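Q: What would this complex look like in 3D?
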Amino acid sequence: MSDYFGVFGLPRKLQVDGEALQRRFYELSRAHHPDFHHGADAARQAEALESSALVNRAYRALREPLARVEYLVALEEGRETKEGDTAKPKAPMDLLEEMLEVQEALQEAKTSGLDEAARARLAEERERLRARQAAEEAALIALFPEWDRAVEAGGDRKPLLEKFKKRLATRAYLRTVIDDLSDALGEDQDTHVSHRRH
Amino acid sequence: MSRIVGIDLGTTNSLVAYVDQGIPKVIPDADGRVLLPSVVAWTADGVLVGETARRQLARNAARTVYSVKRLMGKGYEDVKDELRHLPFEVVPSAEVVKIKIGDREVTPPEVSAHVLRALKQRAEAFFGEAVERAVITVPAYFNDSQRQASKDAGRIAGLDVLRIVNEPTAASLAYGLQKLAQGIIAVYDLGGGTFDISILRVKDGIFEVLATNGNTHLGGDDFDRALVESLLADISRHHGVDLSRDAEALQELRMGGEAAKCRLSFDERTTLTIPFERFTYSREITRAEIEALAAPLVEATLGPCRLALKDAGLASEQVGEVVLVGGSTRMPLVRRRVQELFGKTPRSQLNPDEVVAMGAAVQAQILAGGITDMLLLDVTPLSLGIETLGGIVSVLIPRNTTIPTMAKEYFTTSVDGQTAVDMHVVQGERELAKDNRSLARFDLAGIEPMPAGMPKIEVTFLIDANGILQVQAKELRTGKAASIEVKPTYGLTEAQVERMVEDSFAYAEADVNARLLIETQTEADTVINHVERALRQAGALASAEERARIDGALTALREVRAGTNRDSIRECTVALNQATAPLADRMMEAAIKQAVTSKRADQLLEKT
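A: Here is my prediction, written as structure tokens for the whole assembly.
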């Protein structure tokens, strides 16, 4: 039970059968949930609390493909225990230039407010970025079989890991820009903290 | 081991339930009533709880506390805007809310403890044995402080609270016993003071909450307030009287309005009649009128529903069943809106007032080991984070994470030889700490003096199955557990709860019979008051024979009321009620006639 894959008895592969994972999650919950250890002594109860918390976190990390690859990258780099990192994702260089224009428009919106035309432009820009983000996510998921083959063959996984990191960074950056656009448009204020982090 | 009961500690009413041979049942009091009004009154004769306290609402408004659930886990700043609606006094304070009753101050958990103690005694009378363990329900959208306050209330009442369980999920368990279909279900829970929506996946006995949302300050109370405001305006128009500062009149209006609201869930129109000292206010209210008042509030429940669906990653069509919980879901308007949103007829076979308590009893049975094929996997409703530099929140546990769950965070020092670090834990979805709910400040002390940046303190944030936060800290270089001092922002400290528990023991030893006698006497007083007022106002409507019978019954009751024989006070109270029944009917008829006449006059005026 060293890592979240281990909790579910899985190898560090990215293609996961969602239904089987859910079934296993329910089995593990039945085995560990504190509700079923209420009569036990304090030590056993504390143990149930911890193991059940671990099962829940593991399921959350693995059930969605994108969360899964994020977790995998952290795990492979040996920083899986560091949680709650507050550093804003750095933008990849090529993206940075491309985003300059959007950032300028955002700045302008902040200082001088939004007229109809500027609003429409920001909304359009947001749609474009959302499409770009979706494409980025699809490209990430398309790399999963390659990773799994490398795991099976015991080959060098470093280059793939770098690809994951780059695409994840791009995606994270796109998210912050999309969120900033939503902020400027006065939408989704209440949901964006957890968006940004997940 | 003693029994574990399930308790629904509601804004308006509270209930206690247990599981009898696999079937959850609510426990009635000696008179067969299952709903205990969540009202506590401090009278010269002692503390009253429930129906007898409810009767004090108008007569003893400043010393009768109701809807205290809305104040649980809150600070004065949170509630000061609604104080004008409350007839009792809330004292300004930097910490937890305090209510002033005469020369003493009580906190919301202490008030709730009175309600819980009454339910505990009810269960004990029912079983003929001590009841010391309970599962208590809270709104799913309650934050950590509100949950902790509910748990504290249980402790003060002498209950070991084994579990805090969310109301909508408890309801799903009660429905689950009745063979709920497998699949995705939405539980829409609109009670007296709070609103919750929970989206669950039910599969093979596992009740997995996917997302929850809500508003802990939206419920039937708000409908009543809107109605009272409108009645006040109407009274001022027709009678030229401003009752908005008259605490007793406000309570009469609130209770009369609430009853009318409930009738309008079944009838298209109803007559509201409230006899005041100087005049009788009587008018007809239609369902359309109450719906116009309630519409914005019902609308406000739909946003959280959409957010919960979004967080669950589901479209409304994917919801297989919608279950309605809470008394306010009896309103046809609520049913229509919910049906429109989810595109299907909602279920409400189980009594919406009782289903949460029944679910709590099911959860109690699970904890007792009596049910092993059902398991509830709930979520934490709000994101948990810590304040970082610049007041920004770093989220450690996002909302809708399955509980129990934990997160670790690492801290270090910024000055050479620093031996303590403090952190500020908040709950909420906003980016800045100041916009979220402050839960507590933690002082990590006992760090060995080292150069700045050297210590590595690992802090573990654990949210248990109750949705309540536990924090542990360890300095990794020395392996020493760091001591943590918790300063709850809006909660009671351990020492305060301990003192309240001790106080409550003294109270619990008070003679139960004495209490029952007081309750009976109070009831007699209420009836005597009502009859005296009726005779002053409408004595002429009674025949000489009736009048003689009423006077006789009144004298008899006054005589036994002075004594201590509970049974005879009760008998005489019933007799007086019977003697006045014909007069009461006639007064009602007269009032309705008057209402109709004045309505016609209104219509005439409007036309000219």
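A: To summarize the key features: Chain B has three domains: 4-219+295-377, 382-502, 512-607. The two ends of chain B are 76 Å apart (CA to CA).
Q: Very helpful, thank you.
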